[in-house]
Fold each of these.
Amino acid sequence: MERWWYSLFSANEVSMGQGSFVFESEVESFLDGMIEYYPNFFKDDEFSYLKEKLNWRKDLITIFGKTNPIPRLHCWYGDQGINYEYSNIHLPRNDWSSELIKIKDEIEEKVSTRFNGMLANYYRDGSDYVSWHSDDEKSLGPNPTIACASFGGPRVFSLKNRKSGELIKINLQGRSLLIMHPPTQREWLHQIPKSKVFEDERISLTFRFVHQ
Ligand SMILES: O=C(O)CCC(=O)C(=O)O
Ligand SMILES: [Fe+2]
């Protein structure tokens, strides 16, 4: 299966490669992030199922005293008792469907990690986006692994180093899987930027482990 990896270093250096990557301990101590990308991870594009069946919400977000709709739709799926909140938005929990469990199982097998929740995002066109952030909510613990499955049209995903400002862009295509390993969330921000050109609809499923 086609696989890309990106070793991220704070000293303005990113190495990137295709195929397998073996951690070398001397290198590891300088690493400030690690990303894996599988462009063709899923056999089927589940976009239509996800668009129709997930319990999409249009929430409002208040930033610096101004309230606006979030620039995308979203929803939360998780194990019983596993709730999620970000940017002061409390997301009601939905139960996993068998289709979602199948996607989650495939990812857990690849990442060798268990996830108990998933934040789904639906970008209706190029004007929907998610701004710079890291997935660093306290409930995710200090070293989260985040796995992001993409369906539908491609969108650019950018990463920015908190200290050096270094930028990396990856075009996330439908049926792909992106894994952000620790300590990526601590040292890097990420976003799906707004796009002025026409963009097909896209859905991302971001799997997390929430500590209770
Ligand atoms: O849509 C994506 O690929 C990224 C979404 C994201 O960063 C998030 O849900 O935290
Ligand atoms: Fe994120």
Amino acid sequence: MEYSPILHNLYVVPSSHVRNKLFVLCIMLSLWVYMIYCCVGYCSTVPNLAYANRRESDADADNRGSSAGASRDLLNNQNDLDSRGDEWEDIRGETKALDDNAMSGFFNETEGKKLPQAIIIGVKKGGTRALLEFLRLHPDVRAVGAEPHFFDRNYDKGLEWYRDLMPKSSEGQLTMEKTPSYYVTREVPARIYCMSKDTKLIVVVRDPVTRAISDYTQTRSKKPDIPSFESLTFKNMSAGLIDTTWSAVQIGMYAKHLERWLQFFPMEQLLFVSGERLITDPAGEMARVQDFLGIRRVITEKYFHFNPAKGFPCLKRPEGNSKPHCLGKTKGRTHPNIDPEVVQRLRDFYKPFNRKFYKMTGYDFGWDSEE
Ligand SMILES: Nc1ncnc2c1ncn2[C@@H]1O[C@H](COP(=O)(O)OS(=O)(=O)O)[C@@H](OP(=O)(O)O)[C@H]1O
């Protein structure tokens, strides 16, 4: 058969044209799939790249101590349902001016719901509920009452799921949430960084010994048959070896957890609130918190009334003489008496961690001051 260049062109030209089109289409499709992939919250590959580098020095620390994930979690965090803060709902009332029309941006603000710009990341039993409820009275703050546990337990549900949990907010309002387990969960700093590297992080810290006892008290209220605090504290009681895999002990090693956060966020983006001062001087701590968040100092002493029977500040309306509202009975439980020798052993154990923590934060929380 004779070769015909005309026939050849008729056949080749259209086929390469189609191939080119297909190629462009494939590229567009890949880009589109990648965009969707990122938008639904799986972009953790991005910080993970950074994370891999940053983790090198951290690996040591984590191998030495036990990671939060590997903790002997007798406290069963899964069941750690905090109250939803409804106690103070009526006080909050009309201070929340909602603007349902707030719509701007693709990622952050569709339907007037925003991803949180500030999160209370810990610590468990530090006073996180009180702080969130104080903040929820602020007209420039909108916060979800329940703990979303997005960055530790629900991350696979994606950012859209998370945002949908948030209350609607207007442009000038800050969206917030609190989940105290974030502070000690290894994966969380990278994930929050991935959502927004500008997220403001608040940690309410409390004397780690009292915190551990409070944590234990909560667990015992749900599971009365658990072993004594004293026996759980030690790996080997006669040798006096503290069990750092017990989450009640591990959470209080604040400096160790902070190292992980500082691999992603600068210190200026973290605020440490004293759990003790939140009780003795709530207005003072709230001034620091409001300044940190860049909102007006609205929640002042006028909002607090100390209830001597409860031993805690309760919230009141600044005007009028309506009854102050206190947090529910799961806050401020009576702690069991713990063997003073065990308490002292724990104090000694935490001392170097506390010292390091004071140095890192530039603030002496006074937990070791009696010695
Ligand atoms: N205003 C006010 N009212 C009641 N309780 C207050 C308040 N401020 C701080 N606290 C302390 O908060 C402790 C509970 O901490 P959290 O809210 O972080 O607990 S949780 O992790 O959410 O379960 C809780 O701990 P316990 O006293 O051990 O129960 C309180 O000491």
